Amino acid sequence: MNLIKPYFCLVLFAFITGTTFQVAKEALLYFSPAQTGALRFILGSFLLFIFVFINDRKLLKVNKEHLKSFILLGIVGVFGFNFFFFIGMKKASPINAAIIIALGPAITIFLSYLLLKTKIVFLQYLGTAVSFFGVLVVISDGNLSTIRSVLEGEGILFIFLAAACWAFYSVGMKKYLKGISTVQITTFTSFFGTLSLLVLILFSGDYHIEWTKTPNSAWFAILYMAAFTTFFGYLFWNYGIQKVGPDKAAIFGNLIPVVAMVTTWFLGESLNLFDIIGALLVITGIFIVNSKVNRIESTRKIETSTNG
């Protein structure tokens, strides 16, 4: 069960995040990118601190050695990701954004090799490529012109920067906060990221909200992102990263477009052959990256050298 739990959490993260694109679009109709990020994380951080206070108050004490890492990852992974993501989503289509976000696993693998000196095996390259191709199939429905138009779309550079921030956040946890409680990491990186977003709002003067003119749907979008995408999403993701490593966990991000596709199916849109093929390719890529074949080969080599 302990072996399955981190993978289950990563699947739950993808399921939650896969519904965020359309929800974010609704919020951005009435709030600025900075306001959307700040409101989301003010509520999310509040929920996290309540959770820590009720379950384990010792986690409220931060070791001075880890404080700089909390601040760094909060600024990059929370402020940086949300700042670039919401600016990008202001102009980018959900489809184009999902394709760029799908580059995240490749960026994470590169950073994992660079910062953690992780040995990247052929199966990880293969699985990442297969999974990314699956994302393209799901999103394009076999129409190559859809893929070609991505780089020409507005907001794409910001979405790419958001993906890079998220990749650094994922690898940075393993490098700078190894062995630290997932709950504490999530709580304090969210807290420092929220402070950064509030500073941005204060200096930019972007704090005016027309409370009476904002519909319930916009507030529901903020509440959803705070409770699910931030509170549960970050906890599930950080737990998965800590247990299986960023190089293997990142590939689960490619389930997000598949979840988005399944969500539209539940809302009444029909699935086609390309949707099914793409989803199968994404899942196949995940299994390849997390395959135990390489571990078995390594074990055999150890046994052989011992007998010799």
Automatic annotation (TrEMBL):
Residues 7-139, 155-290 form the EamA domain. Keywords: Cell membrane, Membrane, Transmembrane, Transmembrane helix. InterPro entries: AA-Vitamin_Transporters, EamA_dom, EmrE-like. This is EamA family transporter. The keyword Membrane applies. Pfam families: EamA (PF00892). The chain crosses the membrane at residues 37-55, 67-89, 95-115, 122-140, 155-173, 185-205, 217-237, 249-267, 273-291. SUPFAM superfamilies: Multidrug resistance efflux transporter EmrE. Its main location: membrane. It is a multi-pass membrane protein. The lineage of its organism: Bacteria, Pseudomonadati, Spirochaetota, Spirochaetia, Leptospirales. It is found in: Cell membrane.
